Amino acid sequence: MHDLQQLRQETDEIIANLLNDGSDPDALYIIEHHIAHRDFDKLEKLVVDAYKLGYEISEAEEVEENGKLLFVCDIVSEIALNADLIAAQQKELLPLIEKAGAEYEGWGTYFEDPNAEEDEYGEDGEFFPDEDDFDDEH
Description:
- The chain has helices at 4-20, 40-52, 83-100, 131-137; strands at residues 28-37, 56-57, 61-65, 68-80, 103-108.
- The chain is an alpha+beta fold.
- It has one domain: 2-Layer Sandwich (Alpha-Beta Plaits).
- Strands 1, 2, 3, 4 and 5 form a five-stranded antiparallel β-sheet that branches.
- Helix 1 (4-20) crosses helix 3 (83-100) and helix 2 (40-52) crosses helix 3 (83-100).
- The chain is globular.
- The protein starts with a helix and ends with a helix.
- Mean pLDDT is 89; it is low at 134-138.
């Protein structure tokens, strides 16, 4: 069971550090919730459930931690840098993570330069391509 108050405190600190470093307060941010599991099949079921809720999923990778093989991935969204929104995502995802027996390793994001001349995600400013974009490629 996760301590939501502690998670909120960590979220507030991450956001404060980003903004103090000059990250754009008005940008959309890629929020990556980091997940780890010893069982790939259980991780896969978890991420399918998260995908059904509207999240994107990064490709799972194998890592070795303390001599044990783990499978890790990120459950990803693009939202405003807002602690309430991130907390709402955690409240939605944590029951799925706990049910699957996975580990929630926190969340992360990237610095957004308010002075950047071009959007690093392309002309439309969106990190995730539309499904129609895939149809055009094939």
